[in-house]
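User: Hello, can you help with two protein structures?

Assistant: Certainly.
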Amino acid sequence: MRTISDAGRALVESCEGLRLNAYPDRGGVPTIGYGHTGPDVHLGQHINQTEAVGLLEVDLAEAERGISEAVTWPINQAQFDALVSLAFNEGVHAIANSTLVHKLNLGDVAGAADEFPRWNKSAGSVDPVLVLRRAKERDLFLTLERPS
């Protein structure tokens, strides 16, 4: 299975940040580590860096698998990395069923790139942090290299 590159992983880590104590994210969802959410996270929880990295590995693997299954158009590593970052942040199911992936699978790479900025809301409002993250992901997606 295809995996995110070191550069893609660095993007996810820098955008998510590392928090060893659980906190409510902008939408109020309990979050810990590098943006990990789920039924195993509760406020007041504390983990160490090794545990945070382990959770990140599991979450990235889910996003990698989801993008690998959803995208049928040949994409390069940078595009894969950008899509994994987006899926990691927004959820695999949401991205797999998105207009972005639909356009990409039809070969409309430019149209797919133009969908990144639409994923800019948290709790129903435009979030400036997400605006910046989507710009970084879109720029990475548009990086020219050979498809693999």
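That covers the first. Now for the second protein you mentioned:
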Amino acid sequence: MRSKSSHPAGAAGARHAGGVIHVRPGTAPAATAKELAHLPQSERAARALEQDRGAREVPIDRAFLEAALDLRRTLRILVSAVVPRFADWCFVDLIDGDGVPRRVEVAHADPSKASLAQEILASGSGPGWATPGAQAIRDRAPRLYRELTNELIEWATHDERHLAVLRAIKPSSLIAVPLVARDRAIGALTIVRSEMVPGLDEQALVFAKELAVPAALALDNARWYQAEHAARCTAQELVDRERADLLEAEKAQLRLRRIESVAGSLSGILSPSAIAQLRNAELAQTAEALNAQLAALRVLQVAGAALR
């Protein structure tokens, strides 16, 4: 029988209205699995201990405000409110521009499972919105599985690889709640206990639902700001390109006028000696006007039709 650790798993004091989150000074709450994957286990453990030093407790609502419309920080604050003090695993899915749920964040309590977390991050919802999180988005209803049987695990996965990954984390209970902001579902929060006992229950479901309220609004605000900022940058790039094209057109017009002026000056001169006097100055100016490295002038010889 698999042994389980006895971490305190109650939701008391963790509700978002009065709960707190440990925030590292001057940094985001936690490193992502991708950032830790390339490090050896000893280094990951050392980093975790170092990050915990000097951490301060901040009310969750205020922590979301302090994220200052930064989507990455907001996601990390959300998962840090869950892992490791409340659950072993936490997944966040957000609806993309095509209306498809995409997994954007995975947090885990055990640093040695960074590679497994990457597999979970890549698994997504699959075709048919098979996962509990995707189903919660679809009908905007929370789900509580106090015990995850093999049949439930098979139902909650969309292919063999996804099934193998979910079995690898050995989930014992699961909660999936929709993230609803401005009366529309923007994603889902999935919480899983594997080693932590007891399993998730109705009290944990209340915690998850209350956490999802400020989290959804903060994520929606951050994504709106991100999209607005990207749109402004695109518009500014368009303006800059138009300004550059206009300047280039003006330069081309000035060069054309310069060429016409030189051609006019030379066409009014009949004697070769006069042309010779203007040769160096006028040709140099013409070459400069055209950004050319070489300029040549040819005239008809006095006797005959040859050019010189």
